[in-house]
């Protein structure tokens, strides 16, 4: 595997050195930034339970490691990474799972922590739809989600992912997110 070197601006390095607790190693932090992210997926529980998904994919030779902060999220390793691309599998195309970075699953996990169950959610920059579809699954397609995307080219991708995942509680809009400011109460 080719080694990639990440460029860090001096201002970033200075800021991180100042912000990082002395109990942590700055060199370890920089080394971690050089490593590629582990590939991860999220089971779409609107279409299949986690248990049924694990049973369905067991014969595929996928190693699925649970993501601690997302009960339907898994880091994935495949025996043959050169096989059919993950995004071209029947399971992905039919919306049984979503390819989503583990870190992207964290905001939704935080939103629904401690038995919090919002009935209305606005995602102001929603494309490509990873968090929007995760929120819809956590809401069990109930309540209402306003999924807004300013970029016209990204609206199509957002719509495709919402449709593929079987989401029915989303209103899709295409505005500059600033238009919502006056209508949304401050918390």
From TrEMBL:
<feature type="binding site">
    <location>
        <position position="176"/>
    </location>
    <ligand>
        <name>S-adenosyl-L-methionine</name>
    </ligand>
</feature>
<keyword id="KW-0694">RNA-binding</keyword>
<dbReference type="GO" id="GO:0070475">
    <property type="term" value="P:rRNA base methylation"/>
</dbReference>
<dbReference type="GO" id="GO:0003723">
    <property type="term" value="F:RNA binding"/>
</dbReference>
<dbReference type="InterPro" id="IPR031341">
    <property type="entry name" value="Methyltr_RsmF_N"/>
</dbReference>
<feature type="binding site">
    <location>
        <begin position="125"/>
        <end position="131"/>
    </location>
    <ligand>
        <name>S-adenosyl-L-methionine</name>
    </ligand>
</feature>
<comment type="similarity">
    <text>Belongs to the class I-like SAM-binding methyltransferase superfamily. RsmB/NOP family.</text>
</comment>
<keyword id="KW-0808">Transferase</keyword>
<keyword id="KW-0963">Cytoplasm</keyword>
<dbReference type="InterPro" id="IPR001678">
    <property type="entry name" value="MeTrfase_RsmB-F_NOP2_dom"/>
</dbReference>
<dbReference type="Pfam" id="PF17125">
    <property type="entry name" value="Methyltr_RsmF_N"/>
</dbReference>
<dbReference type="Pfam" id="PF01189">
    <property type="entry name" value="Methyltr_RsmB-F"/>
</dbReference>
<dbReference type="InterPro" id="IPR029063">
    <property type="entry name" value="SAM-dependent_MTases_sf"/>
</dbReference>
<keyword id="KW-0489">Methyltransferase</keyword>
<dbReference type="InterPro" id="IPR049560">
    <property type="entry name" value="MeTrfase_RsmB-F_NOP2_cat"/>
</dbReference>
<keyword id="KW-0949">S-adenosyl-L-methionine</keyword>
<dbReference type="InterPro" id="IPR023267">
    <property type="entry name" value="RCMT"/>
</dbReference>
<dbReference type="GO" id="GO:0009383">
    <property type="term" value="F:rRNA (cytosine-C5-)-methyltransferase activity"/>
</dbReference>
<protein>
    <submittedName>
        <fullName>16S rRNA (Cytosine(1407)-C(5))-methyltransferase RsmF</fullName>
    </submittedName>
</protein>
<feature type="binding site">
    <location>
        <position position="149"/>
    </location>
    <ligand>
        <name>S-adenosyl-L-methionine</name>
    </ligand>
</feature>
<feature type="domain" description="SAM-dependent MTase RsmB/NOP-type">
    <location>
        <begin position="29"/>
        <end position="187"/>
    </location>
</feature>
